[in-house]
Request: fold
Amino acid sequence: MKTLVYVDHFKAEIQQASWEALGVAKSFGSATAVILGSDMQLLAKAAFEFGADEVLVADDPSLSDYHPETFASTLSAIVSSQGADLVLLPTTSRTREIAGMIAVDLNTGVLVDLIGLDFQGDQLVATRPIYEGKLMEKEICSTKPVIATLRARSFPRPNRNEAATGTPQKAEVKGEILTTVEGYEVAEQAVSVTDAGVVVSGGRGASNNPSLTPPAGLDEHQAEIWRAQQGFKLIGELADVLGGAVGASRAAVDGGYIPYSHQVGQTGKVVAPDLYIACGISGAIQHIAGIRSAKLVVAVNKDPDAPIFKVARYGVVGDLFQVVPALTEAFKKKLGK
Amino acid sequence: MKIVACIKQVPDSEAKISASDGKISWGESPLVINPFDEYAVEGALQQKEANGGTVTALCIGPESGKEALKHALAMGADDAILVSDPDLNSLDTQGAARILAAAINKVGGVDVVTFGRQTLDDGSGVTSAQTARVLGWPMIGMVGHIKVEGGEVHVSRVIEEGRQNIKARMPVVMSIVQSIGEPRYPSFMGIRRASKAQIPVWSLADIGASAPAQVVKRTELITPPAREIVCEVITGDSPAAIAEALADKILAEKVL
Reply:
């Protein structure tokens, strides 16, 4: 069976879940990695190192920015010419577009955000959460090729063999660019809450440190944001020690404490880290929906009745401004950092 | 400007969802407009206010879908259309996209189509891009800010890596996220107007479409085992002592 794996990246910053998709493809037979972008040599090499049998690269300056139309047209042409049975993509906001579009081009079905993919006899059966994870469904696609996106951290990541090499094949760029990129306001650090093994999140409580005195001249809202930034600084330090990413509740994002891309929950991102530490987050049902797949949840909150404690394995009823820095110090010591 | 906001009706997010005999039920919980789609309506209304024009809410579904459309009308949409047909009971995402595209073409002269990011029920989040593909229009996903100028839309997309600013010539399809602003509450006048609205129902014949073949099919529903979690509260004489004990507990779980 021939599987193509779309390697998702932002300007060569890889979405690690792409390699998880490659591992699934290998378990079914031969795996061909497909990489679209500009200056993709290093990614192509990495694809061989993670086990790709073949690597197809459309390497062109016109692909340096993501345009859904050209990325989809280029991938559709590759899928057709390769005669693939299955196309796997890691689930990201880009691949939901690309996967949906190539399914239209190839007049086939798309299975989205899977947490399981197995053969039952000859039939490929997908497992995916629906209704925010309150239910799971198994589904099949009766046409070929099957297009499927895989949820990050739901499939094992293959080992990297740095000695592996190969010669990538060239693929042509197709399709017309319909949008113009005018620019970026790139975050200081890419947020990979979906990819991270540890996520430390802050909520409204991050702005609740009355002992801090904001600089003079700030109005009430600016002072609140200033306070919250001090809170998120502590949360960031804990995330750093644990090698994790910083998340946030909706209240923190709506409060302007931190950009939307950090938001975990129903209207933000669904995460599946090994460790999720919720700091000053009450635990609205919409937030809980985003952390259902976390292996271990730890909560720090002043309010002993906060609903977050109902889903947490360990809890601290206390002030995050005291507990979080102490936890950072404790881990620094215990992890030898 | 002619704007179409695509919405879906789903069980409320507080609903207890259960499955038996391959059927999904949500108890006494109400069906509501998909919460993500309220941003699609809000974004559409903002553009109508800024540039003039109309907002049409569009929904595929059974008769009950009219209630979700009435919510959009109460928020301020000018009119609403329900696409409903006995042959539309089982649509996959591409089927839904093809029906929406046919309805959008029948509306005619549309400049902007808005979607929410995904639905609460199926959650695929691919229908907007598929509809754009069927229409042959640009797809602009995860939109947090919109400005229209000289036949072009200038938008800010909220992406994992920060914000990306894009422009495109209309017509376009967008998915809109919460950075667009809190969806407005229906006004009293809006609710009154919506309650009296006669919502047209378009059949497959009305939009000149046939029932799309369903290629993605559900074969099984599984209720995930409830996770019985008992929270162990870590206490101590000082934050340092609590942190010490908590760090040991976490390390013992071998998740790091």
User: Anything to note?
Assistant: Chain A is about 30% helix and 25% strand. The two ends of chain A are 46 Å apart (CA to CA). Chain A touches chain B through 98 residues (CB under 8 Å). Chain A has a mean pLDDT of 94.
